[in-house]
Amino acid sequence: xxxxxxxxxxxxxTRAKASAAAAKLSLSAWISQLVxxxxxxxxxxxxxxxxxxxxxxxxxxxxNFPLSPSLRAGDTPDLPREAL
Length: 84
Known about the structure:
Structural class: mainly alpha
Low-confidence stretches: none
Mean pLDDT: 92
């Protein structure tokens, strides 16, 4: 388990200690729990856990999404580039 040093003003540390005591946790355990509750767990690549599963589950919503050729059909063609 790693150790971390944090700096808090007196009001913050007093409130944290009181909340930890009310939860019947050590200050360290209470802060650890708070961090886990307030942040998203990430996989080894930095993506939120379940991210790709959620995308795959919603894939059917994209079946009728137009492809790029039809989206670009009304665009003005690019001008030719200048010769070097």
